[in-house]
């Protein structure tokens, strides 16, 4: 009745088969959705989560064989199954010897994960929600229940304001703790020594003498009473030489709003600093980039790697979107075909 529709249906099925063949090499033991989820989970996850994931991956690698099924890693073809040796006692001894190093390595990796967890995480805070809005945290009550930190929130905010209004030349020897860590979206983690080396080797104010970070919205995290968050919308003019070679351009820089935070220890020292997390990449003229990456892009001298340039869609993401559009088109076609 509809010869053209049937021909089109066969053409669509041929394309779907071709897409399946193209996607198959990237499956590697999991479906496309699990690959996407895995990529999402691994990006930006905590060191503790990464450590635990490595422990699990280590166990999986040891329990898997290179000859296992392409799309089913739990299946071992009978041809490659290990055959027992003639002497039963020898087989038992061999198994005991081979299992000991595996158990030791797994235990060591697990110990590293547990140690990292103990060092970087605290007990889960007690959370209280607003009675009228059960998805909204009652910050005041939650803060009161979790505030076991010896330094008051108002004093932490004052210390954060002092810190951000100083330059590294104004810092005292005890400003940063010995276990200080610096982290940005793509930079770090940097130790205290690495961070000090980085900031002392780069004279930012020579290139932007009128720079004003415009910090605002200081607040203590109700989940972490030793952490102060703030927002900045930096403005500056490029009137000096940058890094000894980039001549002044006279360009006015306006950065997007960025989230920053400081963590303090009980002695009042800064133990962690996070900067450059852009909250709205459509604001400003830095291409949506935060930190020094944004300033360099705005004056026309972006860094020569993808992280130093504005975000662009990867081919994998474009291909994924294409599959979504194709699935929608096929679904709409069948819906229209069924009506006819």
Automatic annotation (TrEMBL):
Question: What protein name applies here?
Answer: Uncharacterized protein
Give the matching InterPro entries.
NTF2-like_dom_sf
Query: Which chain regions cross the lipid bilayer?
Result: 7-27
> In its keyword annotation, does this UniProt entry include Transmembrane?
yes
Q: Which UniProt keywords apply?
A: Membrane, Transmembrane, Transmembrane helix
């Amino acid at each position: 009745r509809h010869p053209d529709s049937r021909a089109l249906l066969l053409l669509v099925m041929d394309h779907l088969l071709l897409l399946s063949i193209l996607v198959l090499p990237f499956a590697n033991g999991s479906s496309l959705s699990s690959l996407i989820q895995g990529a999402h989970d691994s990006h930006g996850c905590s060191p503790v989560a990464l450590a635990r994931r490595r422990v699990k991956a280590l166990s999986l690698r040891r329990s898997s064989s290179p000859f296992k099924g392409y799309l089913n890693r739990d299946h071992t073809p009978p041809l490659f199954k290990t055959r027992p040796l003639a002497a039963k006692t020898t087989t038992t001894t061999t198994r005991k010897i081979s299992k000991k190093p595996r158990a030791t390595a797994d235990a060591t990796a697990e110990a590293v994960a547990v140690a990292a967890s103990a060092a970087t995480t605290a007990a889960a805070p007690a959370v209280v929600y607003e009675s009228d809005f059960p998805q909204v945290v009652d910050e005041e009550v939650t803060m009161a229940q979790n505030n076991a930190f010896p330094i008051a929130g108002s004093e932490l905010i004052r210390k954060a304001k002092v810190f951000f209004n100083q330059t590294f030349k104004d810092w005292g020897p005890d400003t940063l703790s010995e276990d200080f860590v610096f982290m940005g979206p793509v930079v770090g983690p940097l130790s205290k020594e690495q961070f000090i080396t980085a900031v002392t080797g780069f004279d930012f104010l020579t290139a932007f003498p009128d720079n004003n970070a415009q910090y605002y919205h200081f607040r203590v995290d109700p989940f972490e009473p030793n952490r102060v968050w703030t927002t900045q919308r930096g403005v500056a003019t490029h009137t000096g030489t940058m890094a000894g070679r980039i001549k002044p351009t006279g360009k006015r820089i306006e950065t997007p709003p960025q989230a920053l935070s400081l963590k303090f220890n009980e002695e009042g020292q800064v133990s962690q600093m996070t900067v450059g997390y852009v909250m709205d990449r459509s604001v400003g003229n830095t291409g949506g980039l935060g930190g020094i990456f944004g300033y360099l892009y705005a004056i026309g001298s972006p860094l020569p790697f993808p992280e130093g340039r504005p975000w662009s869609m990867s081919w994998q993401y474009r291909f994924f979107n294409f599959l979504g559009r194709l699935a929608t088109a096929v679904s709409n076609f069948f819906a229209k075909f069924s009506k006819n």
